[in-house]
Each structure stands twice: as C-alpha cells, then as structure tokens.
Amino acid sequence: MGDGGQQTADSRQQEAGEAAVRAIRTPILFLNVLVIAACGLVYELLAGTVASYVIGDSVTQFSLIIGLYLSALGVGAWLSRFIDRELAARFVEVEIAVALIGGFSAPLLFFGFARLQWFQLFLFLVVFVIGVLVGLELPILMRILKEHLDFKELVSRVLSFDYLGSLFAAVLFPLFLVPRIGLVRTSILFGFLNGCVGLYGTYLLRPLIASVNGLRIRAIGVMVLLVIAFFEARTLTSWSEDELFADEIVYATSSPYQRIVVTRGKSGFHLFLNGNLQFSSADEYRYHEALVHPALGAVAAPHHVLILGGGDGLALREVLKYPSVTDVTLVDLDRKMTQLSTTFPALAELNRNSFSDPRVHVINEDAMIWLDRHQALFDAAIVDFPDPNNFALGKLYTTRFYRMLRAHLAPDAAVSVQCTSPLFARRSYWCIIRTMEAAGLFVRPYQMTVPSFGVWGFALARLQPFEPAKRVAIGGLRFLDEPTLATMFVMPPDTGPLPVEINRLDNQVLVRYYEDEWRKWS
Questions:
Q1: Which of the four pLDDT bands, split at 50, 70 and 90, describes residue 82?
Q2: Per the residue annotation, which of 384, 387, 494, 506 is the catalytic one?
C-alpha cells in the first residue's frame, strides 16, 4: 500500500508537471522569451551609452562592453549546467535578480561615476554580473521544457523570439526610450518587465515549484521598488548628477544624441553636453567673438552665412551683428539644442533671441549629410562643433568633411573653425590645421584665452593665400579690438606646430590624439 501510494503521488506530480508544461505551449512562453531578450539587450545598450556619456569614445566603450557582455552570456550558459534541481524556482530567482540589478543599472552607473575612483572596473563588474544572469535564463528555461516539447521546434522558436526581442529593443532604444523617457527610467522600466516575467513564472510553473510564496514576495518587493524608482527617477538622476557638477543643476534633459545639463553658480550659468563644459555665460563672449569676427571681418560684405553646430545660438548672435547679412543657415544635429533657448529662457536672453530673427533658417540634420545634399554657396562659414572626443564627432574634422565644406564657399569666402586647445591638446590642434590644409584650404591658426577653458585655438581659412584682417569690421565688442586681433595670430612656442598625421575617415587619428592628450588633464 505504501509503495503504491507513493507511486500514485509521484504519478500525479508528474502529470501535474506535464499539464503545466503543456500550458506553456501558449504564445505567452514566446512573449516571455521576447521580453527576456529585449531586456538583456537594453541593459547592454544602457551600459554602453552611460559609459559613452561619462567617459567618451563611444566606439571603445561599446566594443569593450559588447565583448564583455557576450562573454558573460557564455559564462552564464556554462554555469547553468550546475543547476540540477528545482529548475523552475531557479528560473524565477534569476529573473528577480536581473530585475533588481538590471533595473537599477543606469542609476548605479551614474552614481558610481560620481563616487568611485575605479569607475571603469565597477562598470565592467555590473555588465558582467548582468550578462551572467541573462546567460542563465534561456538554458534553464529550455531545460524545463525539453522533456515535454519537441526539441527542434523548441530551439527554433525560442531562438527566433530571442533574436526578435533583440531587434525590438535595438530599434526602440535610440528612437523612443532614450529621447522620451531617459536612461534611468529605461533601465527601471525593463527591470520591471523582468520582474513581471519572474512573478508570472510563479503561476505558470506553479506545479514545478515546491514553495512559491517566498518567490512571489521577493518578486513583488522588487517590482514595488522599481515602480517607486520610476516615479522618482528625476531624484535619482539628480543625486548622481549633483555629484558630477560643482554648481546647482537648473535644467537637464536627454536627446537621442547627448545629455544636456545646465548649472547655475555665482558667475552665471554653464552648459554641459555629456558632462563636458561647452560654455560659461560669464566669459562665452570671448570665445564667440574670437570664433566669428575674424571670418566675417575678412569678407567685404557677407550676405549668406553658414553655421555648422552652434545650437546654443551664441555664434549666431555674433553673426547677426553684421547689417549686410541677409540670411543665416544654421545646421545642428540636435533639435533639443536648437530649442534650448525656448525651454531655458536664460539662454534666449544671452543669445539675444537670435533664433527669432527672420534671417535665420535652422536645419536639424547631420552636417556632413547636409553638405553632401546641398549646393548653396556662402560668403562665410562658422564651424562650432564640440571637441572630437568620439568618432561621430571626429568625422567632422576629416579631409572628407573639409573638402565638402570647401565646395560650399564662395570664391572670396572665409571660414573659421574651433580647434580645441593648442596648449592642452597641441597635437590634436595641429592635426586639425594640417587636415584642413590637406583638404585644399589655406589656413591661418590663431589662439586666445577663455578663463573657463584656458588657452583655446581656432583656424581661419580661405580658398586662396591670404593675410588676416588687421581691423575689426564692427564696433561694440566686449573682447575683440584691433590690437587683440593682431595678437591672436601669434602662436607662442609652446603652442607651435608638431608632426602629426592627417585625420581621415578611415583612420580617425584625431580622436586618438585628443583622448591621449586630454587624459592628462582629466
């Protein structure tokens, strides 16, 4: 009787397990696989994006993180072979762990960058842990199902939905998630989705789990934390960003291309893109007068002016001081930058509402693509891109780019380019100068000092050999006058030429120069 009863109980348990597994044949299984795959890829993209924001060099960061993440997936898959009992419970536990660590990965990384000296090691540790956990998910799930489903069909369908989920996340991440809800909320949202998979697993796999109450409590607890964090994401972001900036943050937003932060201190407000200072309202006029007026003053009566970059409108403010200017075309990739004057009125006051001038036409497009698609000629061009700290920006300092720009210059036109510091990044500066020359431009280097940045460098270029103008074309400037203009074109010995390679699309040597030199000062 005892043996028969035991066999009956075992038979019932087996039948219950088989019934549960048969229920998993519904599309819900494949929805779970899709969610798991999407979450895993989003965590990988989040880590790469955060690293690119705070460290720079997106190619290096994404390459390292993708390689580490994929290897961690392999480690997780290998470790799954040591899990022999209670596979369903282990699957739910892994989902809860991924929900917790993956869900809080973005705020953890931002906070870690502000607090930890060895941030990159911390970054790699977070990526590795998430990768191992994600690597455990599918092997465990497939082992739960293998005794009860056709293995060939199971593998093909699971892997198909795995890849489909990855595609879904890859498309959604840059087009919707980052620009619409931001990095922190994105990680929290996908952590919550992992928690949903875990919690639902306690019901879907109930006959295969000895004790579900503890798992459900843990899953619900993590999900509640994530919900609270989602609605307090602004506070979480502020905690981490407050550690990064010396002054109070008064405005912050994310675009598909960068993190935009404005701080305010005793001297005024400061604009940061991906943590890099772009200007201080206290001394930006020195930079923008030096950038704009040597080029426009070199042209007898500039009518048509092109500005590449300069989405803050400050170079535009200087261009509009010339009464001869009839139209200005400003090309800046980031719509959120060119609209910052609207969302942050203090900037509109600083740039004198330059975007409201009817002579101004704003185009939100990649500058290189725009140059390739249009044929208009300009009397003057102002190139005000951020420093070439990654390959996306480095392409805007290549021979290819400068040849395209040259094709848009009228015969007597002049162009000025911001070229980073000839003192702190001397090799980078002269790489830009020599690259412009290699593109067929005649170039005169010049420099001046901005208190917020130190010694800063520019290039003035034309289509024929020339001498810089000796007079300032307009009056009423705060920094630039005729004696100052003359001294700017004198390069001190410690900022003089160095042997450099030419920056081309296929080598992007400038990005390497830039990182090596500025690393000494960071």
A1: very high
A2: 384
pLDDT for residue 6 is more than 60: no
Helix (H, G, I), strand (E, B) or coil at 227: helix
Q: How far apart are CA 413 and CA 305, in angstroms?
A: 10
Specify the long-range contacts of residues 339-344, CB closer than 8 Å, at least 24 apart: 340/260, 340/311, 340/312, 341/312, 341/313, 343/251, 343/253, 344/250, 344/251, 344/262
Least confident of 153-157, 199-203, 351-355, 505-509: 153-157
In angstroms and rounded to an integer, the radius of gyration of the C-alpha atoms of the chain is 29
Residue 384 designated active-site: yes
Longest dimension (CA), the chain: 111
Instruction: Kindly state the tokens that stand for 145.
Output: 């199902």
Query: Which residue shows structure tokens 């465990």?
Result: 140
Is the pLDDT higher at 387 or at 236? 387
What distance in Å separates the CA atoms of residue 120 and residue 127, rounded to the nearest whole number?
A: 11
The residue type of 324 is: S
Q: What pLDDT is attached to residue 32?
A: 82
Distance CA 209, CA 178 (A): 38
